[in-house]
């Protein structure tokens, strides 16, 4: 069962990254069709984040080393904090993409969204670094 949940965790993570990258690409040329696609991809991004969080928490509490182990790891705590920060940063783009159904996007807003998505991708890179540190047992505080 542990292997299945590890697979689901990784598949959701790759889907999340692919969705963010696709959003970034779609923000270059915003036709009406691109805006519709952008909203669909953003829904995939949200779903993959939900699966990633749910499966990750199941792994922490039931399928891996246990919560006591993980909550003594500074990289795990940083990873969790970064995941929350990236998730909170995704709210503004999601709301904006939904609003574009009725009003066209302006160039300044598109630039701001691209910068925010770049920041989210940077957060994901830091999450990967934390995961690597955590897997090597680096940064335990207990």
Structure characteristics:
single chain, 142 residues, mainly alpha, 6 helices, 81% helix, 0% strand, elongated
Radius of gyration, Cα only, in angstroms? Answer: 17 Å
The whole-number mean of residue pLDDT values reads: 94
Can you write the helix and strand succession as a string?
Answer: HHHHHH
**DSSP helix fraction:** over 70%
**Helix/strand class:** mainly alpha
Unreliable runs: none
Structure description:
The protein is mostly helical and 142 residues long. It has one domain (2-135). It has 6 helices and no strands. It has helices spanning 2-26, 32-63, 67-70, 74-89, 91-99, 107-135. The longest helix has 32 residues, at 32-63. The chain is elongated, with a radius of gyration of 17 Å. The two termini are 28 Å apart.
